[in-house]
């Protein structure tokens, strides 16, 4: 199925392409309003803004003074949020009531004006998009669940690989003859590189450990009677 731009998204499944086509812009969604209707909507928005300002101004806020400024600020903020929430609820209830009648007329084929008749297509498309959104949300949740399961499995595999590497090192640490039997030059090169990196890291670690030991010794602390500091200073392990 081609998209509205004429290109075909071959990487999408057929049902995904259908959902994409439903979500695309449609010229039928554009409702043409007269100048009077646009003016009415503009005035309605202005009335709503003025009602919000009025609701906020009518709040009895005490002047901020004295030692309880923080408490008074908290009270003022709470009253502001309550006023805004109350206005929002009333505004949503009003819009819902105003929207219900034309939608019912459009659905039951009793619309008398063009905007009401145009609502029928929009209501149908809204329902289709709501169903598509629900299906996509379910698919998204399923994918997230599968991703979490794969992450857990990947962690287990990494832990198993680490155990196997440790076992391999234990088995081969005293016997280097196995290197001569390797025929894969790439593998030999990788082993050599890893050994070089290990030696560099160990040298850096030894330097840092020696510096730390010198700092402890020269600090004047009684490190000989402290188990942790004594282990740090006297540590001569090659690990």
Automatic annotation (TrEMBL):
Residues 40-67, 147-204 form a coiled coil. It is found in: Chromosome, Centromere, Kinetochore; Nucleus. Residues 38-236 form the Centromere protein H C-terminal domain. It comes from Penicillium oxalicum (strain 114-2 / CGMCC 5302) (Penicillium decumbens). One of its GO terms (cellular component) is nucleus. GO terms for molecular function: kinetochore binding. This is Centromere protein H C-terminal domain-containing protein. PANTHER family: CENTROMERE PROTEIN H.
